[in-house]
Known about the structure:
- Strand 2 (114-118), helix 5 and strand 3 form a beta-alpha-beta unit.
- The protein has a single domain (1-250, 285-439), classed as Type I PLP-dependent aspartate aminotransferase-like (Major domain) (Aspartate Aminotransferase, domain 2).
- It is of the alpha/beta class.
- The N and C termini lie far apart (69 Å).
- The chain has helices at residues 3-24, 45-57, 64-77, 88-98, 123-131, 153-156, 176-186, 237-247, 295-326, 361-370, 401-409, 421-435; strands at residues 81-85, 114-118, 135-139, 161-167, 189-193, 201-202, 205-206, 213-217, 230-234, 333-334, 342-343, 348-353, 395-396, 410-414.
Amino acid sequence: MNQTDQIRQEIFKKIADLHNQITKTGSNFIPGTSPVPYAGRVFDEKEMIALVDASLDFWLTTGRYAEQFEKELAGFLGMKYCLLTNSGSSANLLAVSALTSPKLGEKSLKPGDEVITLACGFPTTLNPIIQNNLIPVFVDVELGTYNIQIDQIESALSERTKAIIIPHTLGNPAELNPISELVKKYNLWFIEDNCDALGSQYRGKFTGTFGHISTCSFYPAHHITMGEGGAVLTDDPLLKKIIMSFRDWGRDCWCEPGCDDSCGKRFGWTLGNLPGGYDHKYIYSHIGYNLKVTDMQAAIGVAQLQKLPGFIEQRKKNFARLFSALEKYSGYVVLPCASKNADPSWFGFPILVEGQAPFSRSDLINHLEDHKIATRMLFGGNLLKQPAYQGIRHRISGSLKNTDNVMNNLFWVGVYPGLTIEMLDYMVDTFDRFFAQYS
């Protein structure tokens, strides 16, 4: 071991000592006083060491850790290509933007083309459709699964419909076989927003592997974290090249940072109206962005990936614990149910207050929040009711009755791996005390 490596190892040892010291002095859970978060980071000294290791390289942009993470996440899911980006929202932007590329010929999305999606959910599933001058067509959700109503998709299609982009709501897979059949039948593009569902499976296959493109998020609330970060995955080599172009300033060149002349003809291209032989590193085939991630973030992700299988199992256990405890209150609330043929890696535990219940959602939420248990809405509810979306071009197929019901009466609580047995027991006891008022 050379002196540089020895110094690094000494630094890593100190980091491990620091983490262990912090863990020792951490406070115990005190029911009613300590918060019960809906989500959060779960990490140990390995993430801290990886972060410092990357920072000591001082490479700063994407580098060896990013390359390792992309390879390992693609391998975990069984996909050919993974491209890191700076957020799940950017991943969605890249996925939709890629489908507008002229390199796709007649298959490219054009302004005014329609995209089937949900009004019920997170804004950055919808935003890239609008930002690319496409028209969202909204389909309602099912109660219980909170995924797209499968039997309503075909009737929502028109001659202008060119794509479907849907999330797997709170980690619960949509019914992907019927969707895939419609995609094939009508020659549509299909994007899976897998940001809340990493590790979920449908018919024994991971979500994020059914669409032409899928997206992930590594925000601290998600299944694994880099702090900020996201990924776009595909099996299509042309889509991979297009996504990389949009991510990396729109350039036509596919050289990795620090590399030159991967194509072997750096000064041999004639594209656009540029002079022949113009440097390929500075030829731009798309109106793109700079949405790369740093290697320090990727380093955290590499360490988190090792924990992902355990995180998935713990989410399932926490969900099962809550479901078992709350099942007796099904006369008052609608409990979540997995989609047919699905094995969710749950992001959260949604609870819908029944219309005939003797209490409101606000009553139940206030009770939980007063007892330090964090709650969340199903993101933006009906996004068409949000101020940002007033006046957008859109079409609604059928009604959004269930979406409005979700907006008015649903909330969710956490199932993330950082919840301890004591926290879960306290959550159950707090629910019990609320419902006891109405027994």
